[in-house]
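Supplementary Methods, section 5.1.

A reviewer requested that the exact input to the structure prediction be made available. We therefore reproduce it here, unchanged from the version used in the analyses.
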Amino acid sequence: MSGYYRSPTICQNTIVFVCEDDLWTVPVEGGVARRLTSNLGAAGSPRLSPDGEHLAFAGREEGPSEVYIMPALGGEAKRLTYQGSNVSIVGWNTDGKHILYSSGAGLAFDPWIWKLSSEGGEPQRLPYGPANHIDFSDTGGVIIGRLTREPARWKRYRGGTAGQLWIDTDGDGQFQPLAPVDSNFTTPMWIGERIYFISDHEGVGNIYSCLPSGEDVQRHTHQDTYYCRLAQTDGRRIVYHAGADLFVYDLEKDTENQVNVEFRSPRIQRQRKFVNASAYLQEFDPAPDGHALAVTVRGKPFTMANWEGAVLQHGERDGARYRFTQWLNDGKRLVTISDAAGEEAL
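The structure derived from this sequence is encoded token-by-token as follows.
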């Protein structure tokens, strides 16, 4: 079996990724994936600590996504933030003791970068202005990504809200725009003497790098169908997902390999489930003589008598959506709008 693997993070010989809204771990060389979480809410944006001992992630156990931390090998997760605003884990500080995340807490629009001790406590908003991503050089330089959202959702966009890179090479607070190519940038990573990022200026999103000056642009991955997405690094390798698969780019060897994941899951989310129909009721129509009712629930049409008999489903059971289901005047036939043929029709 295979799954849809996304939002990976890497440290040493371990990759953690998201699938079925839970966190899973697999060795870098591939193999059997092991589930780390089985939470009530969705988990996302995992980030392994620099020593590989801890795992920070965004969890939705109690409403909006908040910052959680757990042992990288699995175990109980601890909630660290209570800001009531969706978060995305960006990474860890260079000291390995603080989690960096983006959040719009207390703000009306774009998120800022926040720093939080892995032990908990009061989060600190960093003074870099609106940003989605941040990374640091070994000498104290800073690079931030503003509006660096997922370009795979808006391919080859070049408008006013395209992702931007800003760099402070000396760490003195003097930022300059970094635009080595005309593109929509995302996930900047400062590794050694180069800045790595995802760009789609050649058509499909791939990983590129340049010097802090913006010169010497180099391409490192060669995806030609699906965008490189949600790249993350441990300083030696970059992990990302393209389509439903995981890939690792080795900086030293200049090689790119797919991670062969052996995914063993009970597929709970694909199993049949029974929901409260009244909570998903979209519309209803009484029969002309009042003996029955036509209802649309979760895009499916049903009819049922007032007091007796079973509830009957009409139309295709799967793969089609229906709306505006109505009785005809004879009380025996129904008319509805369906997209079963590929386009909506009566």
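The chain is about 0% helix and 45% strand. These observations are discussed further in the main text.
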